[in-house]
Amino acid sequence: MKGWWNELARVDLSSFEVRYDEVGEGLLKKYLGGRGLGARLLIDEIDPRVDPLEDNVLVFSAGPLTGTTIPTSGRFSASAKSPLTGTITDSNVGGSFGKEFKRAGLDAMIVKGQADEPVIIDISEDGIKMFQTDLWGSKTGVCFDEIEKRSAVIGPAGENEIRYASIVTDGYRVFGRGGLGAVMGSKNLKGITVEGSKKVDVNDQEKLKDYVKKASSKIDSSPVTSRGLKKFGTPILVNLITWLGMFSKKNFRECADEEEADELSGERMKEEIVEDHEGCYSCPIRCGLKTKIDGKEGKGPEYESVWALGSNIGLFDLDKVTELNYRCNEMGLDTISTGGTIACAMEMKEEGIWDDMEGFGSDVTGLLYKIAHRKGVGKKLAEGSKRLCEEYDCELSMTVKGMELPAYDPRGAAGQALSFATSNRGGCHLRGYLIGEEIFGVPKLFDRFKTSGKPELVKRAQERNAYLDSLIMCKFGAFALDEEFYSRFLRSVTGVDFTISDLHGIGERIYNLERQFNVKAGFEREDDLLPERFEKPLKRGTSSDNVFDMEKMLDQYYDCMGWDQDGEPKKETLERLDIPNF
Amino acid sequence: MKGWWNELARVDLSSFEVRYDEVGEGLLKKYLGGRGLGARLLIDEIDPRVDPLEDNVLVFSAGPLTGTTIPTSGRFSASAKSPLTGTITDSNVGGSFGKEFKRAGLDAMIVKGQADEPVIIDISEDGIKMFQTDLWGSKTGVCFDEIEKRSAVIGPAGENEIRYASIVTDGYRVFGRGGLGAVMGSKNLKGITVEGSKKVDVNDQEKLKDYVKKASSKIDSSPVTSRGLKKFGTPILVNLITWLGMFSKKNFRECADEEEADELSGERMKEEIVEDHEGCYSCPIRCGLKTKIDGKEGKGPEYESVWALGSNIGLFDLDKVTELNYRCNEMGLDTISTGGTIACAMEMKEEGIWDDMEGFGSDVTGLLYKIAHRKGVGKKLAEGSKRLCEEYDCELSMTVKGMELPAYDPRGAAGQALSFATSNRGGCHLRGYLIGEEIFGVPKLFDRFKTSGKPELVKRAQERNAYLDSLIMCKFGAFALDEEFYSRFLRSVTGVDFTISDLHGIGERIYNLERQFNVKAGFEREDDLLPERFEKPLKRGTSSDNVFDMEKMLDQYYDCMGWDQDGEPKKETLERLDIPNF
Q: What's the predicted TM-score (pTM) here?
């Protein structure tokens, strides 16, 4: 069984001890790596009810395909209980960090405890060491300047345990959602450096070469991956989503019009601020954008960020939005939750609900600093919009399970709406990205306004993304590659035969394991609903005058998932999927 | 009227504006400067009920004698509402910062609002400027290395708004008590730099010269200031206070014995770690200690710190205590409240009251870091022992009004006990230091175990310290100088005649103004009591088997203060002292 070393490191920051262990082959076959392995390891380490900023454990994991020559296989995963949502969560990142980790000889690393003073974990083929660091307090850019190796670091936001703090790698590739940066901060772990040169052992090099060639050609010929993402990066979506009436504006109160959105579009970015493109390790798409504003160079913004820090807070000035994006990366803040929280606070201010908001003005730039340092008005914003609205007893938080929703108004696509509602890390588009089926028509177009058949579609998408996140492969590749490719990649690398159906079974297992974690953490059916705002239709645009019967979709979704009507996996479902008791 | 410029600067960090103003002569004559002026300016700026970490205002002030050649006149004052106690508070510092401030042409500076990003205020004869700074996150030592001018900075503790964070100047001269560092932190004010060369205008230079000469000779011949403090610094007190059975141990559960205390004594320090002495500007006593442990150089510990970080937490290892003291200065933590809070937590742990204390072990060194950064177990400790005990519903916090008591067991001196209880910034020894009267016999010895006459003595001491803090003169000088000296100094510098009775009147006015602030902030008679522990006698030592009737002393104290039996200043008292309505 190639592509895995079975190598697991257990790092205890409280005692400064490192133990090396193995992951059983059985576990790898059942959970692959990345997100699946992370979830499986996590349930042995923590009780689902722990305070995520007190007794949490972080699992970093590569997958069987990480570090190979397979296009879009350069990703790397981190898992923990989320300080933002209280659910199990994971986030994965592109760039080259994962490749180095894998080449240093590791499949996964469990980090527990808390260091007495700020430390950096250094990973190399010689093993894992811990060093005290003077970088605490520094923005991420300073860290990347000072640290010569490949590194994943937190900014001030993570240090100060902002509930949506990110972990930043390679200068701007970010473990963005769910506040994993805050978990690092709570452990006094400023960063991780890594260097490795081992080659991933491949079972059938020839076959792999052949599949890689075919996959690359597919990627080069798909309009989404070649023309769209390759030429404009993710912001190519701005105009499209606006035409569909789903590019929300001002905390989902309405949608941006074409003129406004055009200011933030991929086309406009290319014209005005993009200097160059760059790709993750082993990726031909190269959707990353190197940009420049006012003589200052940086990376991004991505589609989600240009929306969250732009349209969602009513800001249609590309330079300013880009500046905010740079700052979020410097502070180590998730752009989506940052924008969503500010958008919510803006509406609260307009409505006169939150009136002691000294320092909350039109200058959002300074606000990011205040959030990251929990200063003044930033103290309350640092907790995210859900907790903020709970304090003021209002319904203006556009979140699911406490996570701020991303850049698609759910009133424009029934499947995506259900996917947001049932995502087991909260309001996110990456657990089940129905935009493929409902908008791009990949692999097949479904009417975005119809609810029938969507629960089954969401289930399939959630399974697919669960196994993709465990291999780990980028979801952008999946716009071009059909699922047969993943089966082939895995077989040629590991020598083990995984059919598409096997892969979906693994995805289903992972999804249910995560769900079971959340059930034990106290989540219920009512947590699988969208904010009240979405029960009323949009007033303009091509998605107007439309709402979905979420409760009905939920009934059907639970049925097809094998869950009871409270949303709990049935005993027979857990048994069928061989999910351990915990 | 010399010795004052009447110059007041108003700095608004929110708008980056500086306005220059004058302090009226009437105000200066009524409140002198320093603490008195600070309190008087503060009541115009803030409502006593504000959240001290949200809408607070900081007043920095020199006094009429600051920057002159008068011995011990090198001090400088800061006032605000305390985040630790909720009372009005001030703290003053030695060194040379005050002299520079005065010589830059200012009497006081009011700092309000909150900067968007960390700033430093720079004061010079050309005016006040604000600069953004990269020093946020840095320990104080790094700041002093980087900043070439005289500066007052906060460490990580102030940045993270630890309720007992200090402001550090000149490397180790500290505005220690009451959490003024947290107020700076809440304003994103990392530091203040200052440089000035104006000379303080003196009315009668010849007379002043004469008085200075006489005062210096007094200081040189007093055993406390010349032999004790000059030779050993403040830790000369350790053995004396131990012999008196008042050198508390382990959260005031008992008192240290001679053998234990000797490990921390001034004599031991001189033998083992003291390298040199240094004095504040214009001070011949030079009680500051330059020390060295394990090749590392630093300053202190002072008497209070060697107790708080030593005996009070059951640690009798001079090197370790010294290391903790260095760290408190680096982090910007008040040593007394830090030690008091840790001592309290240790007892809670022993008693099984606080059981989720992961990371709270015998290693106090790492704990200081955690407190300053609100990490892990440090989160709860960062709030101080009073809030900690409220959370766990126990009576183990050795505080008055939320401020941790200093290094004298109140069961050994009735006046000091009453002074602790009624101090209007909480459990502190510097509002009324009865150790002079009850132990040193300065100016006259009173039986420490008797309560009769003590309320009047406490009143006099509180008045005296209020005007000393406003001139501003160091209390150590007062061991050698009788009050007539202050009247002479003031007259020769300002040309205005202040009798000793005038000075006591000013002290009384200041004390009542502060009290009135506290009454309006919600403080009541029950806040003027010592912790329950002191209702039971000590079991061993020369202060054992003794408790005081605090309620009775309080009745008498209120009477002689002109307050009603709820502890509120009577209307006629306020009118007599000409205290404004606010």
A: 0.85
pLDDT in tens, A264-294: 999 999 999 999 999 999 899 999 999 999 9
pLDDT at A359 over 90: no
Pick the CATH number of A235-399 from 1.10.10.200, 3.40.109.10, 3.30.2010.10, 1.10.569.10: 1.10.569.10
| Residue of A162, A373, A295, A329 lying closest to B119 (CA atoms) | A373
Domain A413-479+499-576 classification at class level: mainly alpha
Beta-carbon separation of A114 and B188 below 8 A? no
Grade residue A546 by pLDDT with cuts at 50, 70 and 90.
Answer: very high
The whole-angstrom separation of Cα A577 and Cα B122 is 66
How far is A377 from chain B, CA to nearest CA, in Å?
Answer: 9
Chain B residues whose CB is inside 8 A of the A55 CB are: 358
Give the pLDDT of residue A355: 83
Residue B431 is given by DSSP the state S
Nearest to A376 among B114, B363, B365 (CB): B114
The shortest CB-CB distance from A114 to any of B117, B137, B359 is to B359
Q: Report the chain B residue with the minimal C-alpha distance to residue A360.
A: B116
**B119-169 pLDDT tens trace:** 999 999 999 999 999 999 999 999 999 998 999 999 999 999 999 999 999
Q: Domain locations in chain A?
A: 8-194, 235-399, 413-479+499-576
pLDDT at residue B171 is higher than 90:
no
Chain B closest CA to A368's CA: distance in Å?
9
A contacts of B161 (beta carbons < 8 Å): 374
Among the partner-chain residues A14, A363, A373, the one whose CB lies closest to the CB of B359 is A14
Give pLDDT tens digits for A78-105. 999 999 999 999 999 999 999 999 999 9
**Cβ <8 Å between A136 and B373:** yes
Interface contact B376-A160, CB threshold 8 A: no
Strands in A119-124's sheet, in edge-to-edge order, are A127-132, A119-124, A189-194, A150-153, A167-169, A173-175
CB atoms within 10 A of CB A250: 17
| Cβ <8 Å between B116 and A55 | no
Which residues of chain B neighbour A356 with C-beta distances below 8 Å? 54
What is the rounded CA–CA span in Å between residue A504 and residue A491?
15
Q: Give the C-alpha separation, A317 to A264, whole Å.
A: 7
| Contact residues on chain A for B370, CB-CB shorter than 8 A | 114, 116, 188
Q: Are strands A58-61 and A17-22 parallel, antiparallel or unpaired?
A: unpaired
Q: Which residue of B has its CA nearest to A182?
A: B375
Residue A360 pLDDT more than 90?
no
Domain A8-194 architecture: 4-Layer Sandwich (3.60)
Between B55, B116, B138, which is nearest A366 by CB? B116
% pLDDT > 70, chain A: 100
Domain B235-399 and domain B413-479+499-576 have a common topology: no
What is each CA distance from B268 to B238, B244, B285, B319, in whole angstroms?
10, 19, 20, 11
DSSP A72-107: T---EEEEEE-TTTSSEEEEEE-TTHHHHHHHTT-S
- Longest Cα–Cα distance of chain B, Å, equals 66
Q: How far is B19 from chain A (nearest CA, A)?
A: 20
Contact status, residue B392 vs residue B355, Cβ threshold 8 Å: no
> Residue range A438-450: average pLDDT?
89
Characterize the bridge pairing of strands A296-299 and B173-175. Answer: unpaired
Q: Which residue of A has its CA nearest to B366?
A: A116
Residues from chain B contacting residue A366 (CB–CB below 8 Å): 116-117
Question: How many Å apart are CA B295 and CA A529, to the nearest integer?
Answer: 62
Residues A117, A124 contacting (CB under 8 angstroms): no
